[in-house]
Design goal:
The chain is α+β, with helices and mostly antiparallel strands. The chain has helices spanning about 105-120, 125-145, and strands spanning about 1-10, 10-20, 25, 40-45, 45-50, 55-60, 65, 75-80, 85-90, 100.
Length: about 150
């Protein structure tokens, strides 16, 4: 079950769907799959390896991974106590390749606190603001990649 929010990402109203709860990967081993939306994984503890198309991406605590819509992906491996939370973003955008960024520990802690607070109280304004901030940074990076592609 997902919770739907509407957040502001750089002036555009965007739907974001949050999976309820923090997930331990030991219990959730999905096969190779894809989504119609951009998927955002925020990695909360330990490490994991995510396969995106044919590329393996190593994730550590605090990493945020954005997976383009319609890209095949699955977790290859993960630590015994690794945890993450994931979101689907209805933002289309320029995301064509997986993108990874790292959150400062203080922002990661605040995000976890706000997710837990939302689960207990239903208050979502701070959580939406944090998600807007994280997604705006990502889309700014993706837009810059399109404007200034790296060429060999």
């Amino acid at each position: 079950m997902n919770t739907e929010f509407v957040i502001d990402i750089n002036g555009s109203k965007t739907k974001i769907y949050m999976q309820i709860g923090f997930f331990n990967h030991k219990d959730l081993c999905y096969p190779l799959h894809k989504h119609l939306f951009v998927e955002m994984h925020i990695f909360l503890s330990e490490s994991a390896i995510m396969q995106c198309d044919k590329e393996n991406i190593t994730l550590q605590e605090g990493d945020v991974l954005f997976i383009p819509a319609n890209m095949l992906h699955k977790y290859q491996s993960f630590g015994e106590n690794s945890k993450r939370i994931s979101f689907l973003l209805d933002c289309g955008g320029n995301c064509k390749t997986p993108s990874k960024m790292s959150l400062p520990k203080s922002l990661l802690s605040l995000l976890c606190k706000e997710i837990q607070d939302y689960a207990l109280t239903g208050r979502d304004s701070k959580l939406k603001a944090l998600l807007s901030y994280i997604c705006s940074d990502f889309l700014a990076i993706e837009t810059e990649k399109v404007k200034n592609p790296i060429t060999n």
